[in-house]
Design a protein that fits this description.
The complex is a heterodimer.
Chain A (H helix, E strand, L loop, with lengths): L6 H34 L17 H7 L2 H32 L6 H13 L2 H12 L5 H8 L14 H27 L2 H10 L3 H12 L1 H17 L2 H6 L11 H10 L4 H27 L6
Helix pairs in contact in A: 1-13, 3-7, 3-10, 4-7, 7-10, 10-13, 12-13
Chain B lengths: L3 E10 L2 E11 L4 E5 L6 H9 L6 E6 L14 E4 L11 H11 L4 H15 L14 H14 L4 E5 L7 H17 L3 E6 L2 H7 L2 E6 L2 E6 L1 H6 L4 H6 L6 E3 L3 H6 L14 E5 L5 E2 L5 E10 L3 E8 L2 E8 L9 E5 L6 E4 L7 H8 L1
Parallel strand pairs in B: 3-7, 3-8, 5-6, 6-7
Antiparallel strand pairs in B: 1-2, 1-4, 8-9, 10-11, 11-17, 12-16, 13-14, 13-16, 14-15
Chain lengths: ~300, ~350
């Protein structure tokens, strides 16, 4: 029997062949690792004397009783809930500020963007100095005004918030660039129509600018949330998650389990939880926010 | 009262002078068209009246009130923009009511005005649609609706029809004109299209390079162009502006040498529709192009170095390469000074009599 393909089948085959390289790469480096990770989370750690064995959901049971896990998870929630909205709000304000004709605009723009260009390791080291007790920048300023010296990063009550401040400082400039690009896409005619129609700046921002920036806000928000779970470089430099896990985050705890304690199967279990959290948050963001977005 | 008066208005950006001493008045309830080629300053003038640009010098008065230093909102105007400036995320109703909500007009009043405007503009069925779901003409109507519900007597229009196709443009310009008359609005309307200007204007101001070339009724501009530029800008096809060389003067026995004894260099303007093809006398011309337009035919002839365009009714038997003799009546001749292009009134008047 001779195989005759209709043109529309050729179309399908063509299409699949075109996406094949991308599908292959994404499967190899994203989907396969996730699957393998889930698989490994179901086994016990193998040691020299005891080979690894299938233990079902035992790792997950352990996780539920792991106080440190709950500690880092709640830390991470605080961390995300602070860094995401605040850095987005600051980014938007900065973008609005420099999206007009002011003197030295490019200088200000550059200043706002500088933290983004710096590597996280460098930023962490700079801020480590800022937070140093006695001779760090903040303490020097505080003592001038008669304040006491603080061990900012050494105090379990303040360590996490110190990191939050630093991350906001670093992230806002990056998000600002997206807002700035979006603002420059808005037609100046709209602004003029607003002026003629008698809308004040706040009214115009609330009714026009902000809604039209929603696609950017969604994009920035997804990025900010993902970043708040995946960026832990600064912990390595500044606090190592301490004191007493007060500043530790989920990914850093995973890293510790995998590469300090060599408990890779428990690390795999934690990773599954992390991936789940990120997936759920992203889906919620898209489903909830998407509805209220106007795409041009 | 909503008379608009511009006194010695100048506008420059650094060294670039956009407007130079603009003076005019627009009467209450009048539709004044600012006409001119691109870059002539007509949009700048409109934006100065709206308050979207700041004056370099001079004053703007709207309704007996000096508004030169007031922001747009305090000038009691509405404006329709070239690209309509509709808010893409708001539906038709919200777009129309945008200004009323900003000014906190009571809810039931908003509703009443919206209903009125929507019915007037035929938008009643589209109140909940987004601008992107509507056609160009309907979007244009939303912009008009926004100007109507404001219920201010001055409306400024910045090339409102330039994004529409030819047929729709014709419909919309009639609609705008009838709206303007029904609502007794004082309207300043910017366009580069002389047909649009001629058809809807009470008065036209023709601008060129930041100056007013002529201010008058459409008839004034057509019948008695103040400059050679006005002559060649108004009318379609444009007026022929000819340098009277021997060929032309010899060909026109009926044309008395007007400036005998005078040393002024002058130009001769004659509208294509006033040129006749005559049997024996007249200027010799070689047909170089023919454009058949249906009701009319456009014939371009070469006489010596100069091109002369004429229109004749319907179809002609003329074809490219034919020799024609062209003639025109003395009363159709416009004379312009060759130096500054100004109309030579006295001499031409003498001629016509």
């Amino acid at each position: 029997m001779k195989l005759i393909f209709q043109p529309r089948y050729w179309n399908h085959i063509n299409g699949w062949l075109l996406v094949l390289p991308a599908v292959f790469m994404i499967s190899l480096f994203t989907h396969f690792p996730i699957g393998s990770n889930v698989f490994h989370s179901l086994f016990s750690m193998g040691t020299a004397t005891r080979p690894e064995a299938f233990i079902g959901l035992e790792n997950y049971k352990y996780l539920m009783d792991d106080d440190i896990f709950w500690k880092v998870l709640s830390n991470n929630l605080v961390y995300s809930l602070c860094t995401v909205p605040i850095s987005i709000a600051i980014a938007l304000c900065m973008a609005l500020l420099i999206n007009r004709n002011i003197r030295g605009r490019s200088l200000v723009r550059m200043a706002f963007f500088t933290p983004t260009v710096l590597p996280m390791i460098a930023v962490a080291n700079i801020w480590l100095f800022f937070y140093t007790p006695e001779y760090g920048l903040f303490d020097q300023i505080f003592t001038v005004f008669g304040g006491d010296s603080h061990n900012w990063l050494g105090n379990p009550d303040s360590a996490l918030y110190c990191l939050i401040v630093m991350v906001i400082w670093k992230e806002s400039g990056f998000f600002m660039v997206f807002y700035l690009a979006a603002l420059q896409q808005l037609s100046p005619e709209l602004k003029e129509a607003g002026l003629v129609e008698g809308s004040g700046s706040w009214y115009y921002f609330r009714r026009v600018t902000f809604p039209l920036l929603m696609p950017t806000t969604l994009f920035v928000m997804v990025n900010a949330v993902v970043n708040s779970f995946k960026l832990v470089d600064h912990l390595v430099i500044m606090t190592k998650g301490g004191p007493d896990n007060a500043s530790s985050l989920l990914l850093y705890y995973i890293y510790e389990n995998a590469f300090s304690f060599w408990d890779t199967s428990y690390a795999a279990t934690l990773t599954v939880i992390l991936v789940l959290i990120l997936a759920i948050i992203t889906v919620i963001q898209f489903v909830v926010v998407e509805k209220r977005i106007h795409y041009q | 009262m909503s008379k608009i008066i511009l006194n010695d208005v100048c506008k420059s950006w650094g060294k670039i002078e956009a407007l130079n001493n603009i003076n005019f008045e627009c009467e209450n309830g009048e539709l004044l068209v600012l006409l001119g080629p691109s870059g002539c300053g007509k949009s700048t003038t409109l934006r100065l009246i709206a308050g979207l640009e700041t004056l370099t010098s001079g004053t703007v008065e709207i309704g007996d009130r000096d508004v030169s230093n007031l922001p747009p909102v305090k000038r009691n105007i509405s404006m329709v923009f070239q690209n309509y400036a509709l808010f893409p995320h708001l539906n038709v109703g919200e777009n129309i009511l945008f200004g009323l909500k900003a000014r906190k007009v009571p809810k039931n009043e908003q509703k009443k005005r919206l209903e009125n405007a929507a019915t007037l503009l035929g938008l009643a069925d589209f109140i909940d649609r987004k601008p992107a779901q509507l056609s160009g003409g309907q979007r244009q109507r939303i912009a008009l609706g926004r100007a109507i519900v404001a219920q201010v007597s001055v409306c400024l229009m910045d090339e409102p029809l330039s994004n529409l196709d030819a047929k729709l443009r014709q419909e919309m310009r009639q609609e705008i004109r009838s709206l303007q008359q029904r609502l007794k609005m004082t309207m300043i309307y910017v366009t580069h299209d002389q047909v649009e200007a001629m058809t809807i204007a009470d008065k036209i101001i023709l601008m060129k390079e930041g100056c007013i070339e002529q201010h008058g009724t459409p008839e004034d501009l057509y019948d008695r162009p103040a400059t050679a530029f006005t002559g060649s800008f108004i009318g379609n096809p444009p007026m022929n502006i000819l340098t009277p060389d021997d060929l032309i003067l010899d060909g026109l026995p009926s044309f008395p040498t007007p400036l005998a004894g005078s040393t002024i260099r002058y130009l001769l303007g004659i509208r294509p529709e006033n040129i006749e093809i005559s049997g024996e006398s007249g200027i010799e011309g070689l047909v170089v192009a023919i454009e058949y337009l249906g009701a009319d035919t456009l014939i371009v002839c070469r006489s010596g170095e100069q091109l002369i365009t004429l229109t004749v009714k319907g179809k002609t038997g003329v074809s490219v390469g034919d020799h024609l003799r062209l003639n025109w009546k003395p009363e159709h001749i416009h004379l312009f000074n060759g130096e500054d292009g100004r109309r030579i009134e006295g001499l031409a008047g003498g001629l016509i009599s």
